[in-house]
Write a structure and sequence with these properties.
Number of strands: 12
CATH topology of the largest domain: Deoxyribonuclease I, Chain A
Number of helices: 7
Shape: elongated
Largest sheet: 6 strands, mixed
Order of helices and strands: HHHHEHEEEEEEHEEHEEE
CATH architecture of the largest domain: 4-Layer Sandwich
Strand content: 15-25%
């Protein structure tokens, strides 16, 4: 190869490198711009909702990869990382449990759970054993309903809410529980239950009011399951659902909402209602998809009559959703 040819080859290579570096810059700026608009406008309409559902961990991971491999663009990428990394570390997740009074360790003995979960204990001055509620999307039981049930049973739940149950779901498997099967979901508790009809019109969000009768009193439970269709705006269905919490004096609501915890409707809960994660959770808050969850789409909302003692999320390879586990106590009535 002549000197002239070599020089031409080097110049061509540099041009390709410059062009590719420019493409990386444009791509990085575009992705962050979409994400920023989504975080500002959230799910106000269909289009902003699509931008809002762009997972923050995915954006942060992508920018970190670009930062690693493209030295010429590192200064720009570092600047673009600040906002999504701040959102990831300071808004969408909390790394310290909310403070609360101390409690004797004996109150938690019955409900100790595996150490691989993200766990927080909110202590209580009473000596009562907390009630345990477990919610899990079973993904139609494709990984084996028997294995899933054994895992649930090992958690010693008092109330169980299951989404996307297997087609051949057998309620008799849940020995010792009263079981209701409702439109692809199941509720089980150590007590008697009654249910309402469907509460949200339109069919996209299935919501039911279930009353569980315990010796301590009745638990007003609202279970929900939202369609996973990405082309459907969530807010028109979430607004009436949130209004039902106070209207029906719901104590706790759980389900697979296929909508992030920071959705507009979920940030405007009735007085006295809060997300269990915000009240008693810590660590990685995302629930789907396992093994690398990056969207917080399974929700647990608690009402003013309950005190959360512990809220945790657990990952297994038995479903693409993480389990939600809530331990709670009744607050004294005034």
């Amino acid at each position: 190869m002549s000197a002239l040819s070599r020089a031409g080859f080097v110049m061509g290579s540099r041009k390709i490198g410059i062009d590719f570096s420019g493409t990386v810059r444009i791509l990085s700026i575009g992705l962050v711009a979409v994400w920023v608009l989504g975080q500002i406008l959230r799910d106000r309409n269909f289009w902003t909702g699509l931008m809002f559902y762009f997972p923050t961990p995915v954006l942060v991971g992508g920018l970190l990869l670009l930062f690693t491999f493209f030295r010429t663009s590192r200064r720009l990428i570092f600047g673009l990382l600040i906002a999504p990394l701040g959102m990831l570390l300071g808004v969408e997740n909390q790394w310290q449990r909310p403070s609360s009074p101390a409690t004797p360790n004996s109150t938690m003995d019955r409900h100790q759970t595996p150490s691989h979960s993200d766990t927080v204990t909110q202590d209580t001055p009473t000596n009562l054993t907390p009630v345990r509620l477990v919610h899990w999307n079973l993904a139609r039981g494709v990984m084996g309903w028997e294995k899933q049930w054994r895992y649930i049973e090992s958690l010693h739940p008092d109330v169980i809410v299951l989404s996307e149950i297997p087609t051949l779901f057998d309620a008799a498997t849940l020995t010792g529980f009263d079981v209701l099967v409702i439109d692809g979901m199941a509720v089980a508790c150590h007590g008697l239950m009654t249910k309402s009809g469907p509460l949200v019109r339109g069919g996209a969000l299935q919501a039911w009011h279930v009353t569980c009768q315990f010796s301590e009193g009745s638990l007003a439970l609202m279970i929900a399951d939202m369609t996973s269709r990405i082309g459907l705006a969530r807010d028109p269905y979430l607004r009436p659902f949130v209004a039902l919490l106070a209207d029906r004096k719901i104590d706790v609501s759980v389900g697979d909402f296929n909508a992030p915890r920071r959705s507009l409707a979920f940030c405007d809960l009735p007085s006295g209602y809060r997300h269990a994660y915000d009240a008693a959770g810590v660590g990685w808050s995302y629930t789907w998809p396992v093994p690398v969850p990056c969207l917080a789409i399974d929700q647990c909302i608690i009402g003013p009559r309950l005190k959360p003692v512990r809220y945790q999320l657990q990952s297994t390879l038995l479903s693409d959703h993480r389990l939600q586990i809530l331990d709670y106590e009744w607050l004294p009535r005034n």
